[in-house]
Amino acid sequence: MVEALSSLENYLAEAVKSRIETIPEPSTDSVARLAILFSGGLDCICLAALADRFLPPGEPCDLLNVAFENPRIEKNRSNIAIQPKGKKKTRSKSTPTTPEESTPPAMPTQPKRSTYDVPDRLTGRMGVAELKELFPERPWRFVEVDIPYKEALEARGRVLELIKPLETVMDWSIAIAFWFAARGIGHVKYETGQSIPYSSQVKVLFSGLGADEQLGGYGRHRVRYNQNGWAGLIEEVQLDVDRISWRNMGRDDRIVSDHGREVRFPFLSEALVSALNEMPIHLKVDPRYGRGIGEKLLLRQLAHKIGLGRASKEPKRAVQFGARTAKMESGSQTGTETVRKGSTEKRSDE
Questions:
Q1: Which domains does the chain possess?
Q2: Which of 255, 251, 215, 256 is nearest to 236 (CA)?
Q3: For a 10 Å CB count at each end of the chain, is N or C smaller?
Q4: pLDDT in tens, 50-99
Q5: DSSP helix, strand, coil percent of the chain (3-state; round to 5)
């Protein structure tokens, strides 16, 4: 494990370094050259921590965090709030029940929860607090990108065009989150409590794509292990690696470049991919451990080594659940349905 951990750190750090060195210098000291698609989760916070090693001292780094108004969840929240006192609360059929959709507890200093206090917003705030504690000299600019439901609907057609030939609800719910995050228009809250509108000027974004695929971060990796053991897990991970170029990278590249920006993927450095491929699977992921430990085990070890104690234990949460783009209209909607500009329909080949 020690040798594997050292290899991951060295190759990932080199991937981050090489992808920062080629970014043009910003026009002024107050402008960031790099932004990170930031949920506060394991992958993105490790990239941020490593980026601190190679960005010029004192230069800001934009952390883009997106949150959506989800009318389905807001309706459920309202229904619970108006129930008569003394009556036992009942769970709506569309109320989130999966671990991915559950909202982490609010930080003690947080005010009353708002529409945009989605799971990724809360973990994002905890993540930036962790970064500020470890790297206090870096101006970490946490950009809160809040998207009303109406605005998300207005962008639906544009995003559907960009993700073609992909067309599922899952692809759209991921892409719409990245599209608005990559736009980089939001606000920054300062320690004084003041909130100031902000538009990121960066030309390069970092994405954590590739970590889950190579290090067994998805729930289906655990399912496959439970069904078919180590051989089944290896097959599932290899499937993700084999299809990542056309399944994920093309989609994300088109989404981000629509705003005149470039997305870079440090976890997909050729040297790192090659090194990870040579490692035994049990060093990278071990489903015998519980959720929040076994998946992406090696990356969690790296986060712990860096000093990211909270993030090293953060369970995987898909962006569509963390940003609340999933199941905006109906709780019965599935990710494999085909999404259209005004509605969804089942795929004919299902």
A1: 15-210+248-268+316-330 (3.40.50)
A2: 215
A3: C
A4: 999 999 999 999 999 999 998 887 777 666 545 555 555 454 444 444 55
A5: 45, 10, 40
